[in-house]
């Protein structure tokens, strides 16, 4: 093969998946991955946030080993296994009162959101759903049907209406973004979308794949008021930014709202496939009609999830996300002062985004430079992905265990990568091997 990595392994090139880097990993520990060439890579992506405790965490290893060696627990016959029952109890204690009914387990954020989309329509008898432009709720047909990310065009449900997510950077100020987004919603209710026909509003408390957008203060509170007024269920998709990542346990807590349904995924299993929907009984009782997935709620993944939640509490990882996230964000602000490619730094806790632009006045997206920066950072030893409806936002979702030193180490590599991209020192032909999106 051409390019920098002469050792691209067969296993990587045979993968029919989105992959950013032409390299297999052979292991990992904490915030570091080990490449098959022995290189240590600092992981600021943590598999889109799924590796919430980092790699090879002892608490997950022990819990999984125990669940595997316990034959009764590992029978996979139903979700009434002990780890699942304990996990359901735990999750119920972590959501607002109004969502405290029953729990459904799935394998991914996608199947969880798909289940919600189907349940809310059946349970309420209302045919419509609201979601945000740019929202990524999953990659199955049913979850794509309620998503607004460009990657999911073509699979949208007939009853879906997309509304703009308030974008403070694009609008010029948080208030301008909030006012425009709320005015859009109110106009919609007064015209095309009768609110009494809307079953649910799917929200991302921080819009992650759409560009790591942080909602302006007061926006979701106003959305909640509208939803309550019209009997619309509020569904908080916490898949990427929940479970402590934002510096609060639930990311919706920043907006002081109480969703009716909460969706967990990614970091819940710490890398193992498990997701959960928590909501009122009247809604969740419909899940059974859609829940025929043989090994969902299996005890191995549930045990991993319990270990994740216990470790988040025991090691104060929500507080660590807040503290280390602050250090990381401050370091990124300092980078912004020196790199004109950086248009905006935003996020909460350890869910951060850096928007790259070719011009700070016009805010033209610097998508090519974003891909090059991600690639160059990888060459230097930093794993970072990009997101955004215009593919120009560097995304930071490192393990919740990240230390301040690791935050600084990663930013130093990013600093170098940005300088190399700006100076044209990165071989553009490498992008041909780069299977991003
Ligand atoms: N919801 C959100 C907010 C996400 O970011 C994602 C994945 N990027 C999903 C749902 C889908 O989760 P999964 O990939 O586990 O199906």
Order of the strands making up the biggest sheet: 4-10-9-8-7-5-6
Approximately what portion of the residues adopt beta-strand conformation?
15-25%
Q: CATH homologous superfamily name of the largest domain?
A: Type I PLP-dependent aspartate aminotransferase-like (Major domain)
Unreliable residue runs: 1-7
Termini gap: 21 Å
Instruction: Output the structural class.
Output: alpha/beta
Tally of DSSP β-strands: 15
Total helices: the number is 14
Envelope shape: globular
Bound molecules: 4'-deoxy-4'-aminopyridoxal-5'-phosphate
The CATH topology of the largest domain is given as Aspartate Aminotransferase, domain 2
Pfam family, one: Aminotran_3
Keywords: Aminotransferase, Pyridoxal phosphate, Transferase
Cofactor: pyridoxal 5'-phosphate
Family: Belongs to the class-III pyridoxal-phosphate-dependent aminotransferase family.
Report on the architecture of this protein.
The protein has helices at about 10-15, 45-50, 60-70, 80-95, 110-125, 140-145, 170, 175-190, 220-230, 280-285, 300-315, 315-340, 365-380, 405-420, and strands at about 25-30, 30-35, 40-45, 100-105, 130, 160-165, 200-205, 235, 260-265, 275-280, 340-350, 350-355, 380-385, 385, 395. With about 425 residues, the protein is an alpha/beta fold. The chain folds into two domains: about 10-55 and about 315-435, Aspartate Aminotransferase, domain 1 (Alpha-Beta Complex), CATH 3.90.1150; about 60-315, Aspartate Aminotransferase, domain 2 (3-Layer(aba) Sandwich). Helix 4 packs across helix 11 and helix 12 (about 315-340) runs parallel beside helix 14 (about 405-420). It is globular. The two termini are about 20 Å apart. 4'-deoxy-4'-aminopyridoxal-5'-phosphate binds near residues 48, 139 and 239.
């Amino acid at each position: 093969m051409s390019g920098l990595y002469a050792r691209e392994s067969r296993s990587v090139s045979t993968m029919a998946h989105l992959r950013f880097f032409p390299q297999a990993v052979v292991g990992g520990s904490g915030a570091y991955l080990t490449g098959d060439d022995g290189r240590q890579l600092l992981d600021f992506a943590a598999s889109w946030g799924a590796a919430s405790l980092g790699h090879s965490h002892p608490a997950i290893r022990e819990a999984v080993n125990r669940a595997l060696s316990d034959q009764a627990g590992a029978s996979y016959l139903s979700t009434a296994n002990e780890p699942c029952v304990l996990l359901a109890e735990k999750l119920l204690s972590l959501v607002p009162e109004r969502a405290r009914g029953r729990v459904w387990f799935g394998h991914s954020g996608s199947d969880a959101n798909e289940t919600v989309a189907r349940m809310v329509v059946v349970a309420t008898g209302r045919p419509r759903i609201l979601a945000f432009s740019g929202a990524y709720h999953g990659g199955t047909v049913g979850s794509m049907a309620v998503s607004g990310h460009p990657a999911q065009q073509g699979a949208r449900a007939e009853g879906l209406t997309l509304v703009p997510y308030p974008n403070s950077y694009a609008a010029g100020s948080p208030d301008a973004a909030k006012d425009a987004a709320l005015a859009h919603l109110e106009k919609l209710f007064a015209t095309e979308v009768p609110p009494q026909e809307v079953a649910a509003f799917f929200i991302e408390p921080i819009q992650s794949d759409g560009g790591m957008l942080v909602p302006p203060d007061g926006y979701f509170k106003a959305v909640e008021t509208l939803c309550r007024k019209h009997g619309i269920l509020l569904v908080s998709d916490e898949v990427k930014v929940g479970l402590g990542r934002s510096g609060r346990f639930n990311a919706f807590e920043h907006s002081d709202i109480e969703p009716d349904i909460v969706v967990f995924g990614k970091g819940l299993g710490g890398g193992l496939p498990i997701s959960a929907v928590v909501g009122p009984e009247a809604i969740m009782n419909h899940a059974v009609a859609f829940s025929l997935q043989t090994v969902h709620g299996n005890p191995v993944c549930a045990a991993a999830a319990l270990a994740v939640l216990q470790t988040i509490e025991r090691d104060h990882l929500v507080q660590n996300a807040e503290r280390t996230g602050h250090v990381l964000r401050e370091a990124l602000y300092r980078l912004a002062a020196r790199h004109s490619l950086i248009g905006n730094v935003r996020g909460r806790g350890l869910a951060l985004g850096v928007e790259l632009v070719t011009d700070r006045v016009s805010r033209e997206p610097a998508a090519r430079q974003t891909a090059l920066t991600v690639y160059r950072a990888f060459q230097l030893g930093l794993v970072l992905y990009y997101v955004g409806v215009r593919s120009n936002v560097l995304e930071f979702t490192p393990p919740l265990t990240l230390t301040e030193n690791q935050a600084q180490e990663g930013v130093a590599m990013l600093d170098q990568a940005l300088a190399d991209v700006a100076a044209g020192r990165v071989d553009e032909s490498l992008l041909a091997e780069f299977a991003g999106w």
